[in-house]
């Protein structure tokens, strides 16, 4: 440690008026720090001591009472006094053995003057040293603070601040951002790190003079912790003040970094939103890509939207892991990845970084890898649905892929087929239904074809709608339909006869069959939409 001078009992023994003094007890404690001097000639001083005082006395208050003398020395020890200086000859001729034994047991220095000494001159001398010492501390502390504040203007990382406090104190510096590993300046072995961390944990429950720590708060929350550790010399008050000033500087620097990072994130978010909305020219887009170290090999691009449907409250951490997972997997499959997060949706812009044009195959492979990942299989706080827009061959038309990805997501949430992902180009009739829903009353249209069947099922639980779907999916094969529905052929014949009565004997003829199949999709689309609204209302 770069020791800032602290006056000790041993230092005082070298000063004027102490030339003929003798340490008669507690010699092992002569390195105690002295912060002030008191002249004591009373029988109780407990409420007047703050610790580290050197006591001067003639012993007049307890000269004839050994028990009182012992009691006084106990008070000095309990209040952490630096030592007791006794003038012998005037009122006392010797120090009782009980007092000497007590002082030796507690390493409490007892110093005797062989002749009368001027207490006033002693207190003036020692107080002048202490006051000058305090002034020097304040001056040095101010110089340190000014130097650190100047450096804050040019310091780029918090590691530079840690080096600065190390240079000032020459002790072990330990720093930790919340929920991260401890950092050590200077770097030490892993074994030494573990030993110091253990001492640091102990110091949080019981005082330990060789460690001082201070939390660093940002926005009212503990953001980091700064610690100094001295192996040989206890941490001084000056060291603690340096620690506090450094913690303040670190808080300012970390806050500035967060502000810059947040500003950059907001600017990037706004730029990417502009890209998704078609606001940037091709030249601007290429300039942005170059700034991000990307030289695209093609102009092929696709947008996918990942929606998280919360199951539990712990979603923020999942979103962070999910972004890392998606970026890693899609980059492995040849895409440069940009993303925009908004509420429970993450929009990914996937820029093809390979000469091959097989975007769909690689996106499917990436999504399936994500599905099979341990994180997705084990996490239960949210369910995922992924919607991929149409593939675009121009970076300035990303907005077209984005709009179709949003359309895919809307449709996907209304489909009974609840697989995790869909591509816009595979939705076919659902796209047509989505477009029709904006201009046509689909309920009325579907009812025109299916209402008799729906009413029959509601009245008799006849499962005719389920049978109709299966029969059409099996292309009119009665054996496949009965197997699919797990019913006997006779039951199927009975249901088909009911369907003929309700829909007409020609319901399997080509044009009518196509119309019914289409209306079954419309019915599923509307049913899913109504189910979603009901859940939202709950």
UniProtKB/TrEMBL annotation:
Signal peptide: none annotated. Pfam families: HTH_30, PucR. Residues 464-521 form the PucR C-terminal helix-turn-helix domain. It comes from the Bacteria. InterPro entries: CdaR-like_regulators, PucR_C-HTH_dom, PucR_C-HTH_sf, PucR_dom. Residues 11-130 form the Purine catabolism PurC-like domain. PANTHER family: CARBOHYDRATE DIACID REGULATOR, DNA-BINDING TRANSCRIPTIONAL ACTIVATOR ADER. This is PucR family transcriptional regulator ligand-binding domain-containing protein. It comes from Neobacillus novalis. The lineage of its organism: Bacteria, Bacillati, Bacillota, Bacilli, Bacillales.
């Amino acid at each position: 440690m770069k020791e800032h001078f602290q006056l000790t009992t041993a230092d005082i023994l070298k000063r004027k008026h102490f030339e003929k003094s003798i340490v008669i007890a507690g010699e092992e404690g002569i390195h105690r720090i002295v912060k002030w001097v008191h002249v004591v000639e009373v029988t109780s001083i407990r409420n007047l001591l703050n610790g580290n005082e050197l006591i001067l006395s003639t012993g007049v208050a307890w000269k004839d009472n050994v028990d009182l003398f012992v009691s006084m020395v106990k008070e000095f020890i309990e209040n952490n006094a630096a030592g007791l200086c006794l003038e012998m000859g005037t009122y006392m001729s010797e120090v009782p053995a009980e007092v000497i034994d007590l002082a030796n047991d507690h390493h409490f220095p007892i110093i005797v003057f062989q002749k009368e000494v001027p207490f006033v001159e002693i207190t003036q001398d020692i107080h002048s040293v202490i006051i000058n010492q305090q002034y020097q501390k304040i001056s040095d502390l101010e110089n340190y603070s000014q130097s650190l504040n100047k450096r804050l203007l040019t310091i780029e990382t918090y590691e530079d601040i840690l080096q600065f406090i190390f240079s000032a104190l020459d002790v072990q510096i330990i720093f930790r951002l919340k929920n991260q590993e401890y950092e050590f300046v200077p770097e030490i072995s892993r074994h030494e790190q573990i030993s110091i961390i253990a001492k640091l944990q102990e110091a949080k429950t019981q005082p330990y003079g060789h460690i001082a720590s201070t939390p660093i708060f940002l926005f009212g929350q503990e953001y980091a912790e700064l610690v100094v550790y001295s192996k040989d010399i206890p941490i001084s008050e000056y060291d603690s003040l340096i620690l506090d000033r450094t913690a303040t500087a670190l808080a300012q620097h970390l806050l500035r970094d967060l502000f810059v990072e947040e500003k950059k994130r907001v600017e990037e978010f706004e730029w990417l939103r502009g890209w998704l909305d078609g606001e940037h020219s091709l030249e601007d887009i290429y300039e942005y890509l170059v700034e991000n170290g990307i030289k695209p090999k093609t102009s092929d691009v696709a947008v996918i939207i990942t929606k998280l449907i919360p199951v539990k409250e712990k979603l923020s951490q999942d979103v962070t892991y999910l972004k890392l997972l998606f970026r890693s997997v899609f980059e492995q499959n040849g895409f440069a990845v940009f993303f925009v997060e908004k509420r429970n949706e993450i929009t990914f812009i996937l820029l093809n970084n390979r000469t091959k044009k097989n975007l769909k195959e690689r996106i499917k492979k990436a999504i399936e890898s994500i599905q099979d990942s341990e994180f997705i299989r084990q996490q239960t706080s949210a369910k995922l649905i992924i919607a991929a827009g149409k593939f675009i061959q121009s970076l300035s038309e990303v907005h077209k892929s984005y709009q179709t990805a949003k359309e895919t997501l809307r449709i996907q949430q209304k489909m009974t087929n609840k697989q995790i992902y869909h591509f816009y180009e595979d939705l076919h009739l659902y796209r047509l239904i989505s477009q029709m829903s904006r201009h046509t009353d689909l309920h009325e249209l579907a009812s025109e074809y299916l209402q008799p069947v729906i009413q029959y099922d509601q009245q008799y639980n006849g499962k005719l709608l389920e049978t109709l779907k299966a029969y059409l999916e099996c292309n009119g094969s009665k054996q496949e339909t009965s197997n699919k529905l797990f019913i006997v052929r006779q039951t199927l014949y009975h249901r088909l006869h009911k369907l003929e009565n309700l829909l007409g004997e020609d319901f399997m003829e080509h044009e009518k069959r196509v119309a019914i199949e289409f209306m079954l999709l419309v019915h599923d689309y509307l049913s899913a939409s109504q189910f979603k609204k009901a859940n939202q209302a709950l």
